[in-house]
Amino acid sequence: MLCLTLTGKTIEENLADFWKNRSYVELAELRIDYLSPEEIKMVKTFPNLVDLPVILTCRRQSDGGHCSFSEKKRISYLMEAVSGGFAYIDIEDDIKRPELEAECHNYNVQIIRSHHFLDGVPLDLYNRVSKLASKGDIPKVVVNPQSISDLILIFNAEKELSSIRKKIIIGIGDMGIPTRILYKRTGSFLSFCSESTVSPGMLTPWSLSELYRADKVNAQTHIFGVIGNPVYHSVSPQIHNPGFKAIRFNAIYVPFLVDSVRSFFKLAEVLRIHGFSVTSPFKTDVLPYLGKGTREVKFTGSCNTVVRTNSLWKGVNTDYHGFLSLASPFFNAEAKQTAIVIGAGGAANSIVWAFRNQGIKVIILNRSEERAKRLASETMSSYDTLGHADKYSGIADFVVQATPAGMNPHPEEDPAPLLQFTGKEIVFELIYKPGMTHFLSRANSAGCRIFFGIDLLIAQGKLQFQEFTGYHYPPNCKPVF
Ligand code: NAP
Predict the structure, then answer these.
(1) Do 17 and 150 share a domain, yes or no?
(2) Per the structure, how many domains does the chain have?
(3) Residue nearest (by alpha carbon) to ligand 1 atom 39
(4) Which of 170, 238, 280, 412 lies deepest, with the highest CB count within 10 Å?
C-alpha cells in the first residue's frame, strides 16, 4: 500500500492534499505535529472526512518530527483523537502508556510501534524489528542508510523477518530511496509518500504510484536500475518505466546512489537485479565485474549498460550506438569529414570512437591538454586546448559539446566561446538540463542543424531498453519529463 503523509497546518489544507492525491494511495497518515495549535481540536473529525484508513501520528522532534508540545500534552492529544475513527496510531517504542494502549484497543485502532535510528543502520536491525513485533503491534523501524552495504542489510529483512507478516522498514535520505520504491522487497506492507519534504528521500505520490508503480511490484517483477553518484538527476527512470508499462512488461527501474560498485554487485544478487544503466563516475569501474563485454566496451573502456545473462554480467555501450543512430544519417563516405569534440571525459570518449570508426577525422578540444592528449593518442585523433578553439572555426562538419559547462545552475557558461559556427555544422549538445544551452543557442542562431542532449539520452536509452527487455522501445510511448 502507498500511504500519503499529510503535513498541512490546517485540516482544510490536509483535505485538499488528500483529495488531490487520492487516486494514488490506499492509506493516509495525518501528522498532527504539523498542525497549528488551534486545529488540534479538529483532529478527531478527520477520518470521517476522507474515504481511506488513516494513521494518527504526532512525531517528536528527537525522531525527526515537528511536535513542539510537552510530552504530557502530546499523549493527551493522541488519547483525545483515538476515538475519531483512525485505523492506526503510530507510537514510539519507548512510550509506555497503558491508558493510551487501552484506549486504542477499545476503539479498534492498530498500534504501529515505531523506532527511529537516524545515525545509520544498526547491525542488530532484525532483532530490533522482532522486539517491536513481540507485543503484537506492527513494528516500524526507520533507519538512515549510508552505504550500499546498509541497503543489503535492509533488503535482506524480507527473508530474515519473513515470519513477521506486517511490518514497516524504511531507509531515509538519498541512499534510502530504493527502500521506499522497492518497499515490498524489504518485506514492508506500506511505503510513505508526500507532496512535502517531510522526511529526507520521500517521493511524491505521483512518482511512487505512477512513475515507479511501486505497489505493482510482485515476486515476478524484474528489477532494473541506474547506478551513479550523484544519480537523482538522472531522467532514465522516466524513459524506462513508461516503456515497461506500455509493453506490459512486469518490471521496475530504480535509481541507486552507489558508494561502492563492488557492494552494488552484491546487492544486485540480493535483489536479483536483471540489468542496470551505469552513469558517471562508474562507467569504467564496472569493467572488472563483467563476464563479457561487446567490442565497443572493450575499445572505449566504457560501459553504460550491464545486463544479467544466464551465468554472468554482460556489458554494453549504448552511448556509442545511440550517438551513431543520430549522427550516421549525416555521414558521407565519399567526402572527407571532420568532427570537433569538445571535452575529453567519459562521454567524449565514446563519441570520438564512434566518429573515428566511421573514418571521420576527429579534433579533440579540451580545457586540460593532458586529458585531450591521452584520448587523442588512444583514438589516433588530433587535439588542442579550448584556448585555441578560434583556429578551428569553420573547418568541421560535426561539433559535439561533451563537457558539463553550461549545465544548470550555470546555463550562461559556454565551454568554447572562441569557436564560431558557419551554419553548415551539425551540432550535438550532450547537456540536457537546460534543453537549450548557450552553446547550442549560438549554433542554432548561426543556422546549424542541432541535436539536444535529450535526443542522445533517449537514443541510448531506447537501445538499453532493448538490451533489458528484448523488445524495441514502444514507438508511441513518450518518456515523461
Ligand atoms: P567527465 O568524464 O567528468 O568529463 C568532463 C569533461 O568536461 C572533461 O574533459 C573536462 O575537462 C571538461 N570540463 C569540465 N568542466 C569544464 C568547464 N567548466 N569548461 C570546459 N571544460 C570543462 O564528464 P562526462 O561523463 O564526460 O560528462 C560530460 C557531460 O556530458 C555532462 O554534462 C553529462 O551530463 C553529459 N552526458 C550526457 C549524455 C547524454 O546522453 N545526453 C551522456 C553522457 C554524458 P578537463 O579534462 O580539463 O577536466
Answers:
(1) yes
(2) 3
(3) 457
(4) 170
Q: In 3D, which of 342, 360, 362, 310 has the Cα closest to residue 439?
A: 342
* Ligand 1, atom 5: closest residue by C-alpha: 345
**Is 6 a pocket residue for ligand 1 (Cβ < 6 Å)?**
no
Share of the chain above pLDDT 90, in %: 97
Could you identify the residue written with the cell 537546460? 434
Domain boundary among 217, 251, 279: 217
Domain of residue 256, CATH code: 3.40.50.10860
- Name all contacts of 477-481 with Cβ < 8 Å and 24+ positions apart: 477/242, 477/243, 477/246, 478/242, 479/235, 479/238, 479/239, 479/242, 479/243, 480/211, 480/238, 480/242, 481/235, 481/238, 481/454
Annotation marks residue 283 as catalytic: yes
Q: Is residue 476 part of a domain?
A: no
Mean pLDDT, to the nearest integer, of 258-272?
98
pLDDT, mean over the chain: 96
pTM here is 0.94
* pLDDT score, position 26: 98
Choice among 283, 433, 462, 478 that is catalytic: 283
Q: Ligand 1 pocket: which of 403, 439, 452 to mutate (most atoms <8 Å of CB)?
A: 403
Could you give the CA distance from residue 290 to residue 301 in angstroms, rounded to a whole number? Answer: 12
Residue 453 pLDDT > 90:
yes
Q: What does the DSSP 8-state code read for residue 195?
A: S
* 478, part of any domain: no
Q: How far is ligand 1, taken at its centre, from the CA of residue 404, in Å? A: 4
Are 63 and 182 found together in one domain? yes
Owning domain of residue 419: 328-458
Task: Please choose from 227, 233, 353, 367 the residue to mutate so as to test ligand 1's pocket, defined by most ligand atoms within 8 A of CB.
Answer: 367
Ligand 1 atom having least distance to the Cα of 404: 32
